[in-house]
Design goal:
The complex is a heterodimer of chains A (about 450) and B (about 475). Chain A is mostly helical and about 450 residues long. Chain A has 18 helices and 3 strands. Chain A has a 3-stranded mixed beta sheet with strand order 2-1-3, with helices on both faces. In chain A, helix 6 packs parallel to helix 10 and helix 12 runs antiparallel to helix 14. The longest helix of chain A is centred in the N-terminal third of the chain and has 49 residues. By secondary structure, chain B is mainly α. Chain B contains 16 helices and 3 strands. In chain B, strands 1-2-3 form a 3-stranded antiparallel beta sheet. The two termini of chain B are about 30 Å apart. Classes of the chains: A mainly alpha (about 450), B mainly alpha (about 475). At the A-B interface, helix 2, helix 5, helix 6, helix 11 and helix 12 of A face helix 2, helix 3, helix 4, helix 9 and helix 10 of B. Chain A: Keywords: Membrane, Transmembrane, Transmembrane helix.
Chain lengths: ~450, ~475
């Protein structure tokens, strides 16, 4: 009977069109991911090459003054792009995956945006996760909204209910076929992505798959519940689409607006204004004030006394440092606010399956806000490391030619935060179970009247 | 009476629509969303403008309060360009969340616009945002489809269609009446929304309205009205062409999905796929390479600058740059700024060309998709579109260039050519000169410029009007009762 039901399902024109359509868009999503991946790889290769040339050229120009040379040269830190990343591009298109910084004040450089066409950002990526989050539910709805109602409307339901022993099992079989078809389709697409994008079969991939399957099941659970209400096809279609609209467009948008307005970040602008002043005002102040602050921050550099010249690099970099030190409060506030934004959105997402799935997929692919915040922190560490390495050399005016410049290669940051599987899976699972339970109850209660 | 029968039909449909309790629920729901959208739009707008204004003022005061110093140091002290929103952006956020809000403007260096809302948000933003424009462009069309899908199809199913047609009502009258009915139902939401909108709009500018803002607002309302009428016509036409109301519903929802969700993303993705834009690192290193080719003012052996030096020495008949009657390094920096800005602008033009190519697909599709046409138009009117963003960047860059060159001119004119010794006080000029540089003011694009850049959208909306009229005629001739 299952085979028959399957044949019946797959023979219908709508099912075929839907599956082919999804397959096609899924494939396009993979291609877009692949292009993104290639672009990232090119950028990284370029950054490495650029840094090498850039340092060599500047070291040749400014061979007498270490301080002047370090004024110019930039060092790059790369936020590692996971092989899974092209599947869920997330925020990686908005935020740069490469930070290039000089050892001067960091706050003025840290938030430099990537070059972007805002039109592309506005419409968003059609990546693999988009196909899963937006389009799979639509097909699920299209496949199941009329499961019982259609037969009732066309009058075949009576035949079904008299011929099969248990109509409930019959309904389950109808669902089973559709669930299986879509999961097979999804698995096929994911395997295709794994092959095209050379994704290693690791734990991340498994979690990615797990969330996706649970997400598909969640939408079937929604359909199952609505079908269990046993209304007519038009009602089912309208109500399911309203749920889709609500969960995919309205609710996330409302939550986003709420978070943006609740956690406003005037700190960002305050930070830049403050940092600029903190550095520049030092030019017109007694040098001693700047130097005292500097020695306080770095007692180890007390051994370099201020030379008696009007301008010197020790004082210059102490001023630059002062820009960062004086704006540290704003900087921390900004970071705290962003962490709050991240935390609150994750918390709310626990109750909105669509949002939860999207955030989790991005988290696994290391393309979420959390990853960006870690990258910013790492940039700070990286910057500090370069500072501490070069400060003594500048203060001693170490000969430029004696430095082995070729050793300053681009560095890579790997986000090693682990995904909490329980937190990732549980909300989707619980919502699905709840809906299935409610639906089952409806079928049971209605059995006497309906069948 | 004119259109008497149509009005009867319309009234009948409206009555039927409001018999359905679900309609009340959905309408109330949309009402709540609209209020929320208005509220959060307002909050967003006043927040952003207050902060922008505050820091713009603060940075201006900081600039003026700088003590006497070398103007070149002022050129590095720099200025900020903060973006302020226009009134209509309360209703239409457009691309605003993706723009940076602040650009730091300094000599020799073109900075990016930083601190966009998107950079500080979780991926949630990609699901879209709640704004009045979003409700008008996305949700109301869907509501229209929900209201209108069985306008004719249900009559056909019930067998009343034959009855109506046999009573001497023509297809033309029937279609017109049904469209009128759906439209009047939707106007019950649209009109109050617009009233709230106008009130809010008046409040925000304290009832002192400018002509430019008024025209923008009128066009905003007018085009959204036309846009919604399109969907009324489409709903009734599809309903009339479908055998059952279920088929009509499915087709209409399919149309809605393709127009509002799938097409905008796909066309933009195709553009971005075909025309690859350079990354920031590539863009910057290309500029650096070109500047090196043209002449590097930081390289003492550079040929270009050596030639300038030699010709200056010859013209003023002196043997060293210190003996020139003006500040030599200021002169060189003027030249350097000119060259580097020109090169930067050339590269920027090329980049913008790539972006234009990327956008051309979705722009062209506005002929097939009224959603894209209205979205572009409404973003244009509220100055939250792509071209406004570019416009802001360009104005900021012009200001940056003026600032740098003004400071260079001050240096050339007032700073002595003799280098101070290692222990001398640095050369400086009076702080009064800082006020010579005017404050940065962003002037949003006005109506003529907007209409010019949105001409494609306007043309496509007019073509849509014509196309739907023709379709109505064809339908009235060819539709069958069974």
């Amino acid at each position: 009977m299952l085979v028959l039901l399957f044949k019946n399902f797959i023979r219908s024109k709508g099912a075929k069109i839907g599956l082919v359509f999804l397959l096609l868009i899924g494939f396009i999503g993979i291609l877009i991911g692949q292009q993104f991946q290639q672009k990232q790889q090119n950028n990284i290769a370029e950054a490495a090459l650029y840094q090498k040339e850039h340092i060599a050229r500047n070291a040749a120009f400014h061979k007498d003054e270490m301080g002047l040379l370090l004024y110019y040269i930039k060092f790059s830190l790369i936020n590692k792009t996971l092989p899974l990343n092209p599947l869920a591009i997330g925020q990686r298109d908005v935020n740069p995956s490469i930070q290039s910084v000089t050892i001067r004040g960091l706050e003025g450089q840290k938030y430099d945006a990537e070059l972007n066409n805002p039109n592309n950002l506005l419409s968003g990526n059609i990546d693999f996760s988009f196909v899963l989050i937006y389009l799979f539910p639509l097909l699920i709805i299209a496949f199941s909204y009329n499961l019982v109602s259609e037969e009732k409307e066309s009058g075949t339901w009576k035949i079904v209910s008299t011929q099969s022993e248990n109509t409930f099992v019959y309904i389950l079989k109808l669902f089973y076929i559709r669930i299986l078809s879509l999961i097979v389709l999804f698995t096929f697409l994911l395997l295709l992505a794994v092959l095209i994008l050379a994704i290693p079969p690791d734990f991340s991939l498994l979690t990615f798959y797990g969330i996706s399957v649970l997400y598909i099941l969640f939408w079937f659970a929604v359909s199952f519940f609505i079908v269990s209400l046993q209304k007519n096809s038009n009602f089912n279609a309208v109500i399911l689409l309203t749920i889709w609209l609500f969960l995919i467009i309205i609710l996330p948008a409302v939550i986003n607006t709420y978070i943006v307005n609740k956690y406003t970040i005037p700190e960002a602008l305050e930070l830049t204004v403050k940092q600029r002043n903190a550095y520049h005002e030092k030019w017109d102040m007694d040098k001693k004030i700047t130097m005292d602050k500097f020695y306080q921050h770095y007692p180890q550099f007390k051994r370099y006394p201020l030379p008696h010249t009007e301008f010197n690099w020790l004082w210059y970099y102490a001023m630059q440092q002062a820009g960062d030190d004086d704006s540290v409060k704003q900087s921390q506030e900004l970071q705290t606010k962003l962490e709050q934004r991240n935390k609150v959105s994750q918390l709310i997402a626990l109750f909105v399956p669509t949002l939860h799935a999207q955030l989790q997929l991005n988290e696994i692919a290391k393309s979420d806000l959390g990853n960006q915040l870690l990258f910013l922190k790492e940039t700070q560490r990286f910057h500090e490391k370069m500072r501490l390495y070069f400060y003594p050399k500048i203060f001693e005016n170490a000969p430029v030619v004696e430095e082995n410049w070729s050793k300053f290669k681009v560095e890579t940051f790997t986000d090693s935060s682990q995904t909490n599987c329980l937190k990732a899976f549980l909300p989707l699972l619980l919502f699905s179970l709840l809906l299935i339970g409610l639906g089952w109850g409806n079928f049971k209660n209605n059995r006497k009247e309906a069948f | 009476m004119l259109l008497h029968k149509e009005i009867l039909i319309a009234g009948h449909l409206k009555k039927a629509v409001f018999k359905n309790t679900a309609v009340y629920i959905i309408t109330a729901f949309i009402g709540i969303i609209l209020l929320y959208a208005a509220f959060s739009g307002w909050e967003n707008y006043s927040n952003q403008n207050q902060t922008s204004e505050k820091y713009q003022q603060e940075s201006r005061e900081d600039w003026l309060n700088n003590p006497d110093k070398n103007p070149h140091r002022m050129a590095h002290y720099g200025n900020f360009a903060f973006r302020k929103s226009t009134l209509l952006s309360v209703f239409e956020f457009g691309m605003e969340p993706f723009f940076g809000n602040a650009i730091f403007l300094e000599a020799h260096k073109q900075n990016s616009a930083n601190f966009s809302e998107a950079g500080f948000s979780n991926s949630m933003l990609r699901f879209g945002e709640i704004s009045i424009a979003m409700v008008l462009q996305l949700l109301l069309p869907l509501l229209i489809f929900f209201l209108g899908f069985n306008a004719v199809a249900a009559e056909r199913e019930n067998g009343t269609l034959k009855l109506i047609l046999s009573q001497g009502i023509s297809w033309k009258q029937l279609l017109r009446g049904k469209i009128l009915g759906v439209a009047s139902a939707i106007l019950l939401i649209f009109v109050p929304t617009i009233l709230v909108l106008v009130l809010l709009w008046l409040l925000l500018q304290d009832f002192t309205i400018s002509t430019d803002e008024t025209i923008k607002m009128i066009l905003f309302v007018l085009f959204h009205f036309i846009y919604l009428m399109f969907f009324c016509v489409i709903a009734v036409l599809v309903s009339a062409a479908s055998k059952t109301s279920k088929k009509a519903l499915i087709s209409l929802i399919g149309i809605w999905l393709v127009l509002t969700i799938i097409l905008p993303r796909t066309t933009q993705a195709i553009g971005a796929y075909l025309y690859e834009a350079p990354s920031k690192i590539q863009f910057n290193s290309d500029i650096e390479k070109d500047i090196l080719k043209q002449g590097d003012s930081h390289n003492p052996n550079d040929i270009h600058y050596k030639a300038i030096k030699d010709s200056l020495l010859r013209a003023y008949k002196v043997d060293s740059v210190q003996k020139l009657p003006f500040n030599y390094s200021g002169f060189i920096m003027t030249e350097g700024e000119k060259i580097s800005s020109r090169i930067y602008n050339e590269h920027l033009e090329n980049l913008l060309k790539v972006y234009d190519q990327q956008n051309s697909f979705s722009k062209a599709v506005s002929f097939l998709n009224p959603y894209i046409a209205i979205r572009n138009l409404s973003m244009g009117l509220s100055n939250t579109d792509y071209s406004s963003y570019i416009d802001f960047q360009k104005q900021a860059e012009i200001y940056r260039y003026t600032m740098a060159q003004k400071m260079n001119a001050l240096q050339v004119k007032y700073i002595s050519n003799k280098k101070p010794g290692p222990n001398d006080k640095p050369l400086s000029i009076s702080k009064e000169h800082w006020a010579d540089l005017e404050e940065f003011h962003y002037e949003p694009k006005e109506i003529p410029a907007i209409l010019k850049s949105e001409i494609l959208s306007i043309v496509s909306i007019f073509l849509w009007i014509i196309a739907l009229f023709i379709l109505l005629r064809i339908a009235a001739k060819n539709l069958k009762a069974i």
